[in-house]
Amino acid sequence: MKMTFRWFGPKDSIPLSYIKQIPNMSGVVTAVYDMPVGEIWPIETLEKLKAQCHQNGLEMEVIESIPVHEDIKLGKPSRDVLIDNYCQNIINCAQVGVKCVCYNFMPVFDWLRTNMHHTNADGSNSLSYSQEDFDNLDPNNLHLPGWDESYSSDELQSLLNEYQNISHEQLFDNLIYFLKKIIPVCEKYDVNMAIHPDDPPWDVFGLPRIVSSEQDFDKLFKAIPSTRNGLTFCTGSLGAGRNNDLIHMVDKYAKQKRIHFFHARNIKYVGDSNSFVESGHNDKCGSLDLYKIIEVLVENDFQGYVRPDHGRNIWGEDNKPGYGLYDRALGASYINGLFEAIERNRK
Ligand SMILES: [Mn+2]
Question: Ligand 1 mean position to 211 CA, how many Å?
Answer without folding.
Answer: 13
